[in-house]
Amino acid sequence: MPRRIAHNRLLLTGVLALTTALQFAVAQPLEPLGSLNMTPRTGLRGVADRVYCVGNNNFAVVDVSDPASPMIIGQVAPGVPALATVDVSGGFAYCAGGATGLVIIESTDPSDPVWRTNLALAGQVRDAVVLDTLVAVATSANVSLIGVRNPLQPHLLTTFGRISSSVRWDPQGTKLYVGSQTGAFALSVQHYDSAGATRYRLTAAGEYGSQEMTPHDIAGSYVTYARGADAVAVRASNYSLAGIHSVPSAIRAVAGGNGFSFVALATGSLQYLDQRGDTPEFVAAAGLPSTSTGLTLAHGGGQPLVVASTSAGLSIFAYTPLVVDDNPHSTLPQSLSLQAFPNPFNPSVTLTLSVPVPGDYALDVFDLTGRIVSSEHRFMSALTTTMLDFSGLASGVYFARLHGAALSTTTKLLYLP
């Protein structure tokens, strides 16, 4: 069996919606598949067929490969009273631990996660997201950038002095999209060499609004913010208002993909939004047992999933993928492509996979001898981003090959020592 590179990360998945002649989305059902009784969770992150969950002094890994019968496969109590959010990369989970700081848990063996260390910061940590060896952190004092080339020795790289509540990376790692109690803003992430070392700088790159704009997530070329009972779409390119979709009650959680979003309402319902155009449009809705405090996308049972956390545990739904038919707002790629960033890299690389025809595709990674070191098959459509961790492999040249639907493309990868 080929050895799979650990913790491939599915950040953006899905396809675009079947439209009418008037180019409005046709309502598609959200199909309830399964549920899992758990203590309340405040943060979720889906990675392929696993969902990483955090709550009061608990970190758990849930297997959703059979979404009708999800199961906890590992958990740990890191001694932190309030874990708020979680993100994962390279066999480690990075959790927002409030006054405790950034909490780092090793999950290389998902059946036996281990708390490793905490990093105290100037303010309470409210959100944390990881890209390669950088963790962006929203705190009650600022936005912080943390270096985790060695996750056991995290260190502060730089800060931007504005209170923040939620934060997201753009797929290329050049910007941060931030939500706060005083509006939404974007930061440019810049790096430069100084005295033989790489330094980082965060600078303002856009701003919208002055009211509370959080939580939020990326939906293709838009960033979708919750502003009370409004889903506010902001253009990622220039941070100008694109459109607003109003819902019956306050939005508690947001999960975005390429051209769509899910929002969970305080009244205990889940809405599916088409976001190919400027203004988010309603697609479908489903009921939840209670208010949701977390949403994430995953993939199990050969289909895309949206997972919601409630006071009763997890609720899992399949959503009908959206396809496009002569839609001017479509971001459906015209050809098969495979891009890597950063490249060269150490130890993680993010692959952006663009497929013009929705279907089953394979992503193989092999070395110069042709030996396959990673092989993954999944349903893909439009744009998908996957993070690969090469820890444990020898440095050198590798190749990534994406193939399916009678199409194939290959790109060269350089893993630095």
First-to-last CA distance: 26 Å
| Average pLDDT for all residues | 86
Q: Roughly how many Å is the radius of gyration?
A: 20 Å
DSSP strand count: 34
Biggest pleated sheet: 6 strands, antiparallel
Number of helices: 0
| Low-pLDDT ranges | 1-27, 324-331
Structural class: mainly beta
Strand content: over 45%
Shape: globular
Into which percent range does the helicity of residues fall?
under 10%
Key traits:
globular; 6-stranded antiparallel β-sheet; 4-stranded antiparallel β-sheet; 59% strand; 417 residues; disordered N terminus
Q: What can you tell me about this protein's structure?
A:
The protein is mainly beta and about 425 residues long. It is about 0% helix and about 60% strand. It contains no helices and 34 strands. The chain has strands at about 10, 30-35, 40-45, 50-55, 60-65, 70-75, 85-90, 90-95, 100-105, 115-120, 125-130, 135-140, 145, 155-160, 165-170, 175-180, 185-195, 195-210, 215-220, 220-225, 230-235, 240-245, 250-255, 260-265, 270-275, 280-285, 295-300, 305-310, 315-320, 335-340, 350-365, 370-390, 395-405, 405-415. Strands 1, 30, 31, 32, 33 and 34 form a six-stranded antiparallel β-sheet that branches. Strands 2-29-28-27 form a four-stranded antiparallel β-sheet, with no helix packed on it. The two termini are about 25 Å apart.
